[in-house]
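This week, work through this protein record:
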Amino acid sequence: MRYTNEITFVKESPKSHYDPESGEWIKDEPKRSATIANVTDLGTERRVKIFGDIRQGAKVIRTLPLFSLPEFDYIEFESKTYKEITVRNPSGRNSLIVQEVSVDG
């Protein structure tokens, strides 16, 4: 298995807040953790089992052995944003199934 794809785990800052005087949401810089992984499309059969239909934008992300997943709100990969659907840890390797989403910003 080749680990050639760069992904970024993003954790939103707890310092982001609503400013009632300006009426705007003030965003603080999120914490980013980049790593390499193996990223592939989710197979049709598994898409149907997980989602009940064939959704586009579903991926499987496999990390290097013994990689500890950081706390994250979403993952960035190839200029797209993904949310975690499920995580497994077979043999010390994390395997995440993710779905493409839109993040305001």
